[in-house]
Design goal:
alpha/beta; Nucleotidyltransferase, domain 5; 2 domains; six-stranded mixed sheet; five-stranded mixed sheet; 12 helices; about 20% strand
Length: about 350
């Protein structure tokens, strides 16, 4: 039985380490973003992200152990994200995990970052626990800067992809609109904050595919509509109406996300749902999502903010579950920018 693992996450621009138990209890998690390194570029630069990971990963691992009150002798395995993501960033985590596993004589495993997000609802700590009766199967909406997908999570290791974005991810749509407005990086947080004081009905932005009989998403049209709207305004008008612009644009994204989630729950007659990934930290999505769940008698689980963004705790839980099924990776494991064919089941398969 693998009881405790050290987990490392470096798939994009967040460096994170965690110590997690087989029950999903997070003994310690330390995460650091790289916003200050990428803000000047207005987005994540892969080479910069990789270099920052090399500087931060070992100090973060050390801090993680300090916060957990356990030693290497109590660690039964090492888990690391090895797919999908930025290859240079993933490489730092994979090499570090393999080196630590070899140095301390521990088994290790590489896991899929997206699977980790799907299992994040099961995490717990001293201040948070998921509902005791929450279990498989459930519908999961995974939304981030690089992914927007709906899943039917049938059981551990069996994830059916119901629909995906046909173009841009929801997080990217947020970031690009923030950049058009000159709000800074990361853009999604900036839009969310300004939208709090805005009117979500002030501007009429498109809700692409919202009525289509499928589970797919599209946000490229929304981005184009946002650009046209801003081009029609003077700089002064943009500044005066920034809250309304952000609120209206945000509303268009949130309405589509929840409409597709609702469609999936109804189609599969499931009363359990999950919002996960970085965009699930959006305050409007959380508020309207809970209202939707209450209205439709849905058990909606949204992990705390610390487990929504990229973090090693969710990676550790996914890995420890697989290790306790007997799975292991060898020292030949490498990073991959893509998922493996066996990671997910696609609706048309």
């Amino acid at each position: 039985m693998i009881k405790n693992v050290l987990a490392i996450e470096t798939s994009c621009d967040d460096t994170s380490a965690a110590i997690v138990t087989h029950e999903g209890f997070v003994r310690s998690v330390i995460s650091a973003n790289q916003d200050k390194y990428h803000a000047v570029f207005g987005g994540v630069v892969p080479e910069v992200a990789g270099r920052a990971h090399t500087q931060m990963v070992l100090p973060i691992v050390e801090e993680c152990f300090k916060g957990s009150n356990i030693s290497w002798s109590e660690i039964d395995g090492v888990v690391v994200t090895n797919r999908p993501g930025l290859v240079g960033s993933l490489l730092v985590g994979v090499v570090t995990a393999k080196a630590l596993a070899q140095a301390y004589g521990k088994p290790f495993i590489g896991v899929n970052h997206l699977e980790a997000h799907l299992l994040a609802p099961f995490l717990s700590d001293d201040s948070y626990s998921p509902p005791e009766d929450f279990t498989y199967p459930y519908i999961a909406l995974a939304i981030s800067g690089g992914h927007t997908q709906l899943y039917l999570v049938e059981q551990l290791g069996r994830y059916r992809v119901l629909g995906s974005t046909l173009d841009d991810a929801a997080g990217e749509a947020f970031d690009k609109f923030a950049k058009m407005l000159g709000l800074g990086f990361p853009g999604g947080v900036q839009v969310d904050q300004r939208a709090l004081s805005g009117d979500p009905k002030a501007y009429d932005f498109p809700r692409s595919l919202i009525h289509e009989d499928n589970f797919n998403f599209s946000f490229s049209g929304l981005k184009s509509a946002g650009q046209r709207t801003l081009q029609a305004l003077t700089q002064k008008q943009r500044q005066q109406n920034v809250a309304d612009l952000c609120a209206s644009y945000q509303e268009a994204i949130v309405e589509v996300l929840l409409a597709k989630l609702n469609k999936a729950c109804a189609h599969f007659n499931l009363k359990k749902a999950v919002l996960t990934g970085g965009v699930s930290a959006n305050s409007r999505l959380r508020k309207l999502g809970q209202l939707w769940a209450d209205k439709n008698n849905i058990q909606l689980v949204i992990p705390p903010l610390r487990y929504c963004t990229d973090n090693a705790a969710m990676v550790g839980f996914a890995g420890i579950q697989r290790m306790n099924l007997g799975e292991r990776s060898d020292q030949g494991l490498g990073p991959s920018p893509r998922v493996l064919e066996t990671d997910f089941i696609y609706e048309n398969s």
